[in-house]
Write a structure and sequence with these properties.
This protein is of the alpha/beta class and about 180 residues long. The chain is about 40% helix and about 20% strand. The protein has six helices and seven strands. The termini are far apart.
Length: about 180
């Protein structure tokens, strides 16, 4: 399973999240053979990494294009996807999602908490490539609708904090402060 780290929702917080990615790349490399950043363009980054740039067949900017591009790129049977906006997902959550996918016969295994589903944290089968292509052609970017129409396992997690979504610089700074307190 390959790991494209989605950057589709990062425009509000800028480079700080990508600096986080650089520091966490070693962590992800322990879990996955290959780690990528899925992005519209690699030109906006000031560091070296393995990037999967969005296919140019479509001019939209949406997570569905990131999924489509990553699934087209990979030779693996599946990809693990994690949005850059959720930096507190750990090895417990990742391993649970991947193990569930590998032991089952699912098209996707997606994280779910009491607050809802997290479609940008999960494992997706390469067999979904035609589904994402159709979604793009129809300008349909509702991942929830796709997940209802395929064989999806929603894996329940109790740790809501791990799935905190950080969209603004002040949220990111507060999260870093909490992490420093936790590990000091």
């Amino acid at each position: 399973i390959k790991y494209p780290y989605s950057s589709s929702n990062c425009k509000n917080t800028g480079k700080s999240k990508f600096n986080y990615f650089q520091s966490e790349k070693k962590f992800f490399k322990l879990l996955f053979k290959e780690v990528y950043i899925s992005t519209k363009s690699a030109d906006k980054f000031d560091f070296i990494a393995d990037f999967i740039e969005d296919e140019t067949d479509f001019t939209i900017s949406a997570p569905t294009l990131g999924f489509y591009s990553a699934l087209r790129y990979t030779h693996s049977e599946a990809i693990f996807v994690l949005s850059v906006d959720t930096p507190f997902i750990g090895d417990i959550e990742i391993n649970s999602l991947v193990d569930t996918f590998l032991r089952g016969d699912y098209d996707a295994v997606v994280a779910k908490t009491q607050n809802g589903t997290h479609p940008l944290c999960g494992v997706y089968s390469k067999s979904l490539l035609p589904n994402f292509e159709q979604m793009l052609r129809e300008n349909n970017h509702r991942l929830g609708q796709l997940l209802k129409n395929i064989n999806t396992k929603f894996l329940e997690f109790e740790n809501e904090e791990a799935f905190s979504n950080l969209n603004h610089p002040h949220e990111y700074k507060e999260a870093l402060r909490k992490e420093q307190i936790r590990y000091n």
